[in-house]
């Protein structure tokens, strides 16, 4: 007897839709790239917003600082010895407590010395292009404190400011 032990196997060709094509992969990479660029832009905007919030917080602290100094030295504050205008520069004289307070306050804001050189001990926490003014009105007993700085957001230079008006 002769037996046939030959098995008949069928060979099927692979489907034309199995796996990914190169075009599908490229389209997925383009979509992924656009999404990552969007995330990078969002991160940059977030960092700039955080920096802006930090500078505003610092400016608010500086306004409160000089107001507290004036309240501690009320006699000189009422005599308007704390008054200084924006862009007046840092006074070199420190003969009175008011002059020393204003000198120290403006140096903290700007990170600069009275001669215009950078004060390395005060640059941390200072405002870029920082400046301040104090105006006491004896009639109303109100003091107006303004702190401003330079902000280069997106390559456009602006000068934001914080102004607080309060009674001594």
Summarize the amount of helix as a percent range: 40-55%
Note the gap between the termini.
122 Å
**What does the main sheet amount to?**
3 strands, antiparallel
Query: Which descriptor suits the 3D outline?
Result: elongated
Average pLDDT metric: 86
Description:
The chain is of the alpha+beta class. The chain has helices spanning 22-72, 74-78, 97-110; strands at 131-137, 142-148, 151-153, 156-158, 161-167. The termini are far apart. The relative contact order is 0.14. The model has no long low-confidence stretch (mean pLDDT 86).
Supply the key terms.
single chain; 168 residues; alpha+beta; 3-stranded antiparallel sheet; two-stranded antiparallel sheet; 5 strands
Could you give a quick summary of the protein structure above?
The protein is built from three helices and five strands, in the order αααβββββ.
Topology:
Elements: H1 22-72, H2 74-78, H3 97-110, E1 131-137, E2 142-148, E3 151-153, E4 156-158, E5 161-167
Antiparallel strand pairs: 1-2, 2-5, 3-4
